[in-house]
Specification:
Layout lengths: L7 E6 L9 E5 L3 H6 L6 E6 L2 E10 L8 E4 L1 H7 L6 E5 L7 H8 L6 H12 L5 H10 L7 H13 L12 E5 L9 H10 L4 E5 L9 H6 L8 H11 L1 E5 H4 L3 H13 L4 H14 L4 E8 L8 H17 L3 E8 L7 E2 L1 H12 L7 H15 L10 H11 L1 H13 L10 E6 L4 E6 L1 H10 L9 E3 L7 E2 L4 E7 L2 H14 L2 E4 L3
Parallel strand pairs: 1-5, 2-4, 7-10, 8-9, 10-11
Antiparallel strand pairs: 1-6, 2-5, 3-4, 3-6, 12-15, 13-17, 14-16, 14-18, 15-17
């Protein structure tokens, strides 16, 4: 049925970033709001030619939007790519088919594969609001999603995305569950593995709740927003890549769930398993190593929790025929010197370049992970991986491969430096007894990371080090005086380093 004149409105661009959530803006006095009963936060279906989008309505009370206009957020605008002056029609969308499954999960019921598939299909089609998706995330937290459900959710995420096929042969990959500032081993591991002739097409995420994701760090050195054909060309040419997974959209449902989890700052083991493995399987991986830092302020807090998560990951990987191993590492303190995209990139380059001041812990962890991944390859002898990884680093082959990958992705560039820095000093003399990773991450984010790539903090201190009163504990890096002041104000009371006075 053709839309009547009163349901059609001229489309304009709002110029408002709502992250990945499509939002439309209408004036409260517009005829369509009155006739259709649209109010703030209503879900509306927008028709523009043959293209359809379901979005959330925000109501404008000022003069930003005329009564005969609808303004689109950046996410909505990019999804529809409208021509100038085009008219769009609006109506209430049909109820999402998965609402029953969502309610069942909220009330503690176990969902089957068809219900998870319906939820992910509706999520990708924007038929579920962010509030409904947040309810799903909350209802799945803790122990509310069992092993079978985690596998079912993984299948559902795979079903609504794309899958890469690299043909015959092994495809290696590694992933860190997160929670450890500065743990930027991926670029080094990819360079080592690719230099040895193995395929390692790495898709990485941007920061969710941290000061930097692997994609953020890599982006200060080379482009990462490659599409699938470009990613394939890089891997076919160099054997490996480090690209932003959000642009290749191998698991678009997971990208949506990550957006919901970002402000909530929590997830469940089941959702974490589905998130990680759906992307690894979609990327065509055959052998995956999981780096799991364990520590009181890491994402995985205890050995018991780590063992439980490892069992979950292994069970779901087995269901898909994926070879998976878990490497449990020290999560009590940060890795490297820098925390923040550019500062972490500088650490990566120092390790690859074999600089005298390269962070020893970042090199050791990268070599251990690369070695463990090499030993997953059939025919490679146990206990030989780390020595092979060391040789590739020492010889400069890893650096040469990393630079080649950067060039294939669009060109290498040196990381930027922050305009403003300031030291935070020790209030007492003593020995460092503990380090709060979350508070360090918070300081780096207040300084502007990852939005300002050069922002963050730098520290080489570790548990057991002795400090003197007035000695710098860490240096805050910022791109503006205001961000520097915010970070320093929080740092003054946060006390991320617990210093025990020495008699």
């Amino acid at each position: 049925m053709k839309a009547s004149a009163h349901t059609r409105m001229r489309v304009i661009r709002a110029g408002i970033d709502t992250y990945q959530q499509p939002v439309v803006y209408m004036h409260r006095d517009c005829e369509i709001c009155r006739s259709e009963g649209f109010v703030a936060m209503t879900r509306v279906q927008m028709q523009l030619g043959h293209r359809t989008l379901i979005a959330t309505l925000n109501v404008v009370v000022g003069d930003m939007v005329a009564v005969d206009e609808v303004a689109l957020s950046e996410a909505a605008w990019n999804a529809l790519a409208p021509e100038p002056g085009v008219l769009a029609s609006f109506r209430h969308p049909e109820p999402a088919a998965s609402v029953g499954a969502l309610r069942a999960k909220v009330f503690g019921e176990r969902l089957d594969e068809s219900q998870y598939l319906a939820l992910m299909q509706d999520a990708v089609a924007s038929r579920l609001s962010d509030l409904e998706l947040a309810a799903f995330v909350a209802a799945s937290a803790g122990e509310r999603m069992d092993q079978g459900e985690a596998t079912a959710l993984t299948r559902a995420m795979l079903a609504v995305g794309q899958r890469l096929d690299w043909g015959e042969g092994l495809v290696l990959d590694k992933h860190c569950v997160g929670g450890l500032p500065g743990n930027r081993t991926t670029p080094i591991v990819v360079a080592i593995i690719a230099a040895l002739g193995y395929r390692i097409p790495k898709t990485s995420s941007r920061a969710i709740t941290s000061p930097a994701g692997t994609a953020d760090t890599m982006e200060v050195m080379a482009p990462v927003a490659l599409d699938l054909p470009a990613m394939r060309r890089v891997v076919e040419r160099e054997g490996g890549c480090i690209v932003w997974g959000g642009n290749v959209r191998l698991s678009p449902a997971d990208d949506i769930m990550i957006r919901i989890q970002r402000p909530l700052d929590f997830d469940s083991d089941g959702q974490l398993v589905a998130s990680v493995l759906s992307k690894k399987i979609a990327a065509g991986s055959t052998h995956v190593l999981i780096d799991m830092p364990v520590g009181p302020t890491a994402k995985v807090r205890s050995e018991v929790a780590g063992a439980h998560l490892a069992t979950r990951l292994g069970g779901t990987a087995s269901a898909f025929g994926l070879e998976l191993d878990v490497y449990r590492s020290d999560g009590r303190q940060p890795v490297g010197v820098g925390i923040g995209p550019a500062l972490e990139a500088l650490d990566v380059l120092k390790v690859l370049r074999n600089d005298a001041d390269a962070p020893a812990d970042l090199r050791e962890r990268s070599v251990a992970l690369a070695g463990a991944l090499l030993e997953m390859v059939p025919g490679n002898a146990a206990g030989t991986g780390a020595s092979r990884a060391n040789e590739v680093l020492d010889s400069g082959r890893a650096l040469a491969k990393f630079l080649a990958i950067c060039e294939a992705q669009g060109g290498f560039r040196e990381p930027p430096h922050a305009e403003f820095t300031a030291d935070v000093t020790a209030g007492v003399s003593g020995r460092i007894a503990a380090i709060d990773n979350r508070r360090l991450a918070r300081i780096a984010k207040l300084a502007g990371a990852p939005g300002s790539p050069a922002a963050g903090l730098a520290t080489a201190l570790r548990i057991g080090h002795v400090v003197q009163r007035g000695q710098p504990l860490f240096a805050v890096h910022a791109q503006s005086r205001g961000e520097l002041a915010y970070a320093l104000e929080y740092a003054a009371t946060a006390a991320p380093f617990a210093v025990e006075e020495v008699a």
